[in-house]
Amino acid sequence: MTKKIAPSILAADIMNLEHDVKMAEKAGADLFHIDIMDGHFVPNMSFSPSVIEGMKRVTDKPLDVHMMIDNPDQYIKPVVDAGADTVLIHTESTNHIYRSIELVKSLGAKAGVVVNPGTPLENVKELFPIIDQILVMTVNPGFGGQSFLPGMLRKIQRLDQLRQTSAADDFEIEVDGGINAGTIKQCSDAGADIFVAGSYLFNGESEAEFAEKVDKLRQSAAE
């Protein structure tokens, strides 16, 4: 599958978000990753459907929305109505993950599930036929700027193996957490397709420096 770079706006300058989105778009970002956190499911809070709606006005790139919230079903429609192209839901956040995925799909968006570092892949195998993406967290969810957990490479590799031996083999594997020019190659070699990068990209760089980092990520993923 095509390797894709997804800048995470959690690390962007929220006071200059349109500037950072345009900068990332110009640099060749394939999509944008938006974290919605409620302060309960994870110990942090961020963004709302209004941010998705605002981003939809300034970019044509797909918006990849990561729901780190309890009871996600009540927010799925507002998020999709705001412009989410893909909605990613943690298996632990709902008692009925299959129903949540079906709800996302019924609203016309792509649907995916998220596996935390401690989440067994067996918990999501039954969802393979109905999902478009699986997001493997390579840090503990909730905060940006954390160090990559190398033990997650085995999980990515195992997931890729399961994908290859499954009849439902067309979902993409996404990774989020500690992604830089070194770890992206490791994740790509393990089988990942979409790479969420936050603090590595958004660190006060000029447009030229930002573009250089995106190019470096893309080259490393393709090697």
Automatic annotation (TrEMBL):
Q: What is this protein called?
A: Ribulose-phosphate 3-epimerase
Q: Where is the signal peptide?
A: none
Which positions in this protein are listed as binding a divalent metal cation? Answer: H33, D35, H66, D176
Instruction: Point out the gene that encodes the protein.
Output: rpe
Q: Where is the active site?
A: D35 (proton acceptor), D176 (proton donor)
Catalysed reactions listed for this entry? D-ribulose 5-phosphate = D-xylulose 5-phosphate
Q: What class of enzyme is it?
A: isomerase
Assigned EC number: 5.1.3.1
Known pathway: Carbohydrate degradation
Q: What is the documented function of this protein?
A: Catalyzes the reversible epimerization of D-ribulose 5-phosphate to D-xylulose 5-phosphate.
Entry's family note? Belongs to the ribulose-phosphate 3-epimerase family.
**Organism, scientific name:** Companilactobacillus mishanensis
Q: For binding substrate, which residues are annotated in this chain's numbering?
A: S8, H66, G142, F143, G144, G145, D176, G177, G178, G198, S199
Lineage of producing organism: Bacteria, Bacillati, Bacillota, Bacilli, Lactobacillales
Cofactor(s) it depends on: Zn(2+); a divalent metal cation; Fe(2+); Mn(2+)
Query: Is Ribosomal protein tagged as a keyword?
Result: no
List the residue ranges forming a coiled coil, or say none: none
Task: Tell me the GO molecular function terms.
Answer: D-ribulose-phosphate 3-epimerase activity
How is its cofactor bound, per UniProt?
Binds 1 divalent metal cation per subunit.
For this UniProt record, the keywords arranged alphabetically read as follows:
Carbohydrate metabolism, Isomerase, Metal-binding
Q: Matching CDD domains, A to Z?
A: RPE (cd00429)
